[in-house]
Amino acid sequence: MPGIEAPRAASSLDDRKHVITRQASIFAILRSLQKHRSPLSITFRGHDQQIFTSIVLKVDLNEGYFLLDELSGSGHKRAMNAEQFVISGNDRGVQVVFGGNRVIAAGTNDGAAIYKIALPKQLLYKQRRDAFRAHIAMSDRVDVKLVSYERPKPLIGQIVDISSSGCKVLFPYLVEPEFEELEVFDEVAFDLPENAFDSSVLCAAEARHAVYDTVKQNTECGFRFLSPDGRNQREIDRFVSYIQREARRMGLA
Q1: Domain locations in the chain?
Q2: Architecture of 134-249 per CATH?
Q3: CB–CB of 33/91 below 8 Å?
Q4: Which of 8, 42, 49, 139 has a CA positioned 20 to 30 A from the CA of residue 162?
Q5: Residue-wise pLDDT tens digits, 51-86
Q6: CB 179 within 8 A of CB 22
Q7: Region for residue 64 given its phi and psi (left: phi exceeds 0; alpha: psi -120 to 50; beta: otherwise)
Q8: Measured between alpha carbons, how far is 211 from 234 in angstroms, rounded to an integer?
């Protein structure tokens, strides 16, 4: 897979679903890494066993570059020799990997070296499946309303599975315009089943992989919850536990 050179699993068919190519989305991911000062692991081609660390200092979408903080020891020397390297990190629990990086210019900031690197053409952005995802029976499915200030009207669908960190939604129509990679929905709202709860959930979420079925005229899309507050996260976790209990009671798990 050109541009993504680590880890080997990144070349699998499953990972290809998580490759981001839209420059605005890549910019947003790198800006998030910068904002949270997320530590990055740097490995140079042919020296995979030696790992250097850095952080993103700045991202410029218009000029198409980002700045990395100084690497220690031989990492600085290799960077200044324009050797190719892979960057990997973690954006709020989501794996970020992109390769083919080279320093195109260098400078200093408060006496420390900084490196200018072209924005990648693509990167791997994949959430580790460490959260149990509960499939929701037809009788317990809940309607969900998704609002994006960039769309003319809300989207209405049904949640078909859910975990503590995200959900999959079925829309009984072909969503137009199609979902953008990592499109953010400012409000995702759903009421929990009345027979077991008397509450609702409201948080933001970002769109992940979408599937458009032109035969059935429907759309399925996964969403990742974006930092729900304590109350909403507790309600989501309670709902996941409830679905698990119901599945065991019905002999489905």
Answers
A1: 8-127, 134-249
A2: Beta Barrel (2.40)
A3: yes
A4: 8
A5: 999 999 999 999 999 999 999 989 999 999 999 999
A6: no
A7: left
A8: 29
Question: Could you read off the pLDDT tens digit of each residue along the chain, which spans 253 residues?
Answer: 445 444 444 444 455 557 888 888 889 889 989 988 889 999 998 887 789 999 999 999 999 999 999 999 899 999 999 999 999 998 777 789 999 999 999 999 888 999 999 999 999 887 655 456 778 877 778 999 999 988 999 999 999 999 888 999 999 999 999 998 778 899 999 998 877 787 899 999 999 888 999 999 999 999 989 878 889 999 998 888 888 887 777 655 5
- Cα dist from 144 to 26, 64, 136, 179, whole Å: 28, 37, 13, 16
Which tokens go with 148?
């994006």
Local structure of 21: helix, strand or coil: coil
What residues form DSSP beta bridges with 167? Answer: 162, 223
Query: CB–CB of 106/209 below 8 Å?
Result: no
Element (H, E) at 33: helix 23-35
The superfamily in CATH containing domain 8-127 is Electron Transport, Fmn-binding Protein; Chain A (2.30.110.10)
Q: How far apart are CA 188 and CA 168, in angstroms?
A: 12
Coil, strand or helix: which one is 172?
A: coil
177 exposed, middle or buried (CB, 10 Å; 0-12, 13-18, 19+)?
exposed
Whole-number Å distance between alpha carbons of 35 and 114: 17
Question: Does 177 sit behind a cis peptide bond, omega within 30 degrees of 0 on the bond before it?
Answer: yes
How far is CA 169 from each of CA 94, 187, 188, rounded to the nearest angstrom? Answer: 20, 14, 11
DSSP-assigned letters across all residues of 5-18: -SSGGGGSHHHHTT
